[in-house]
TrEMBL record:
PROSITE patterns: VOC
Domain of life: Bacteria
Organism: Ureibacillus yapensis
Name used for this protein in its record: VOC family protein
Coiled-coil annotated spans: none
Length: 127
């Protein structure tokens, strides 16, 4: 068994698509209309046949509550691996990304947390 798809709730699919592709560098693999929303799947440029990240609309009240409470408590909804957290931090800061946790070492990992502008905190990690 392996993970093939995972999702995060976003408050605006268009805004999320732009941020995750243009700022973070993910590649759009699918963008399919599904009623009033879309099935938007992104992949890593380094693993285009790997796990897909779905930008899931938060139109359900439970999804909105879940997303809001995690954001208010500063809890990242997911984690992305990077080669060098400090280098990625500098790159993203130059693009205007707002970090809530600057790079710091925690045991064997270095991590940082940023606001994805779509209602989530995202953690980047270097092992």
């Amino acid at each position: 068994m392996k993970i093939i798809v995972t999702s995060i709730f976003v408050d605006d699919q268009d805004k999320a698509l732009e941020f995750y592709t243009k700022t973070l560098g993910f590649i759009k693999k699918h963008d399919v209309p599904v009623g009033e929303f879309r099935w938007i799947a992104l992949v890593s440029p380094n693993e285009q046949e790997g796990t897909e990240l779905i930008l899931e609309p938060n139109n359900h009240p439970a999804a909105q509550d879940y997303q809001k409470k995690l954001f208010e408590d500063g809890i990242p909804v997911t984690m992305f691996g990077v080669e060098d957290v400090r280098e990625e931090y500098e790159r993203l800061v130059k693009l205007g990304v707002r970090f809530t946790t600057e790079p710091k070492e925690m045991g064997d990992v270095t991590l940082a947390v940023f606001d994805d502008t779509c209602g989530n905190h995202i953690q980047i990690v270097q092992k």
